[in-house]
Specification:
2 domains; 55% helix; mainly alpha; 12 helices
């Protein structure tokens, strides 16, 4: 967003965008990228074309992938909030960086393809554009790098969540950490999702528990005491289940995630 502050912003007259505003903004962003061929591999070269990933029907593609029908992005003015958020995530997943070869022959069409190695660049460009509007929508939302829409993070948590250290064990640790972040932060995350997210981090920490103890000492026992006695990982009569989820789950999630992140960064410094 432009760092310059205009009159209404200086006066504090800043109203969140509503669903009608977001439809307009999304349609503008979509048409801008579409006109530059970012979605041609996904949507094809025209409304009736069958050369894209979706085949000859965006609605049928959505029924197959999302279990419900959604109109093409060009019909975004009819979208619900669920439609908008689903389609934003779909476009982010399937966007490609275009390669356009212009023909000198006026009778020939340009040749359009994509550059797979630059897909992450295209995704970032799309996130940067759509997030300008998502962050202004109602309580504030954003499209995460992983491709899911989440509530805007508090500034103090942004670096921890977006730049979590990588341990180097994809199956037993890193995949669990990524899955935990998505479960906890995604739009519509339930209390059970949030508990599952804390459990995922706990399982990752368990796998590296011996090494973790050597770095943080007796604090390691406190971490697993919380995981094992607050109804997160095991169910038995002795566990505490009367705690306030709204208070304790955020505390657990960020404490455990920051513990993991700090441990990995400390170990990496030794290399």
């Amino acid at each position: 967003m432009n760092e310059k502050r205009y009159y209404s912003q200086r006066q504090g007259i800043i109203n969140p965008l509503d669903i009608k505003d977001l439809r307009v903004a999304f349609k503008s962003v979509y048409e801008n990228f579409s006109s530059k061929y970012y979605f041609i591999k996904f949507l094809g070269n025209g409304v009736l074309s069958e050369d894209g990933i979706i085949g000859n029907s965006f609605e049928a593609f959505c029924m197959r992938e999302l279990n419900r029908s959604i109109k093409r992005p060009s019909m975004a003015m009819f979208y619900t909030e669920d439609d908008l958020f689903d389609v934003i995530e779909l476009l982010h997943e399937h966007i490609n960086y275009p390669l356009v070869v212009t023909r000198s022959d006026v009778w020939s069409s340009d040749e359009i393809s994509s550059i797979p190695e630059k897909k992450d660049i295209a995704q970032k460009q799309f996130r940067d554009e759509i997030n300008v509007y998502l962050r202004q929508y109602l309580s504030g939302w954003e499209l995460a790098e992983e491709g899911f829409i989440r509530n805007t993070l508090e500034e103090s948590f942004v670096d921890l969540v977006d730049n979590t250290a990588v341990y180097g064990d994809e199956v037993n640790i890193d995949a669990k950490i990524r899955r935990a972040k998505e479960l906890y932060l995604k739009r519509g995350s339930s209390m059970e999702d949030k508990k599952a997210a804390v459990r995922e981090i706990g399982d990752a920490l368990e796998f590296m528990r011996t090494d973790l103890k050597q770095v943080i000492g007796k604090d390691e026992a406190d971490i697993f005491n919380i995981l094992n006695n607050f109804g997160i990982r095991h169910n038995n009569a002795s566990q505490r289940t009367d705690f306030d989820n709204e208070i304790y789950l955020p505390w657990m999630f960020y404490i455990f995630l920051s513990t993991f992140d700090a441990y990995v960064k400390i170990e990496n410094k030794k290399l």
